[in-house]
Amino acid sequence: MVLQEEVQRKFEMTQKLMEVYEWLLSMYLLDFYVDHQWNTLPESWRVSLQAMDPEDLGTLLSGAPIKHMLPLSFLSLVKCAQTLSISRERNINCKPKNIEDFPHSEIGNNPKLTNLFLKHVKLKKRHEINLMAEIVNETAKLSNCGAVLDFGSGLGHLMRVLTYKYDLYTMGIECQSQLTEQARTFDLELEYTARKHLSEELMSKLKRPTHLNLTLTSSEQLLQLPLTANITEYGLVGLHPCGDLGPLLLKHFVTCEKVKFICIVGCCYMKLSCDTEPYGYPMSDYVKKLGSRLSYNSREIACHAIETYSERLLKGQYDYLKIHAFRAALEKVLVEHDPALKHSPVRSIKHSNTMTFKRYTLLS
């Protein structure tokens, strides 16, 4: 009861803070020049921020103290945000000491097949897939659960690690049939390589992923999934379930006894439904009573990790952020030419140290 009251108190404080700074939360970087956003900041903020080096901004975003004198209103906002934020750090003290004793499959135990799961996986994805798979495996074993359903399974990269390395039964639910077909092809490629190092007897004992094409729109569909005979109880897994899919899975976890654990990392929060039932945000009845609302812009901001920007500023990698300024400048040009072109989609351009604005516009 004490914990519940503490959580509710934090929600109330967060709601009040969002109401005060709604103007700031709703800013869209794309409109920086169009809406003259710099001039909307309090004058004292502008004076202080203007005097900072990019490295100082990185230090400020990281939460560390800086050498500059800042306005009291700005310091209060920073302190409130730090106090009310949920820690992103993983509590390593919660990791079971005997996790190494959890069994792996024959592929997972074979040193010659260590890099087998890296094929077809982009460098950016490898870290998050490996970390997600490790956490899911730990949670599954501690929950005495041997099966998982992976929602938005895509090309099946996460499923292959969970199945072939960690020996879990898996079923992937994906709405795009071409991704499912490609995932099955990748499964066969992995087994073809594994067969060179494992006996036919060991290969015959391997668990294999199951792929299912389905577009989820309601909780009723989750109750009617055609589960295989090996999947009676399961965990829910989702690496970047988009928009309302995350809330849908959370509700299923709460209401279905077959679900033993859930491990999801949501994305595309701007696509959460906020005006129609069932709400993607807010899900909590208590938060609804507070009248909590988040604009489309503020929900999109929530998709971006502040650590990424802080790290680049601290390392002096300002050029990585130059692309954002170019896009905002291009938006200004487009809107002045024709207001109907506001927020028009343009081609995504990769960062380059030598890129000029003229070059950026030509590529866009």
What can you see in these coordinates?
It contains 18 helices and five strands. With 364 residues, it is an alpha/beta fold. It has three domains: 1-85 and 287-317, no CATH class; 111-267, Rossmann fold, CATH 3.40.50.150; 319-363, no CATH class. Strands 3-2-1-4-5 form a five-stranded parallel sheet, sandwiched between helices. The N and C termini lie far apart (55 Å).
Topology:
Elements: H1 2-20, H2 22-25, H3 37-40, H4 43-50, H5 54-62, H6 72-84, H7 106-109, H8 123-142, E1 147-151, H9 157-165, E2 169-174, H10 177-194, H11 200-204, E3 210-213, H12 219-223, E4 234-242, H13 245-255, E5 259-267, H14 285-289, H15 296-301, H16 306-314, H17 319-337, H18 357-363
Helix pairs in contact: 1-6, 5-16, 8-9
Strand content: 5-15%
User: What is the residue-averaged pLDDT?
Assistant: 88
Number of strands: 5
User: Helical region count?
Assistant: 18
The value of Rg in angstroms is 24 Å
- The side-by-side strand order for the widest beta sheet comes to 3-2-1-4-5
Largest sheet: 5 strands, parallel
Helix content: 40-55%
**Straight-line distance between termini:** 55 Å
* Poorly predicted regions: none
CATH superfamily of the largest domain: Vaccinia Virus protein VP39
- Give the helices and strands as they follow along the chain: HHHHHHHHEHEHHEHEHEHHHHH
Looking at the overall shape, the CATH architecture of the largest domain is 3-Layer(aba) Sandwich
Number of domains: 3
Query: What coarse outline follows from CA principal-axis ratios?
Result: globular
What is the name of the CATH class of the largest domain? Alpha Beta
SS class: alpha/beta
CATH topology of the largest domain: Rossmann fold
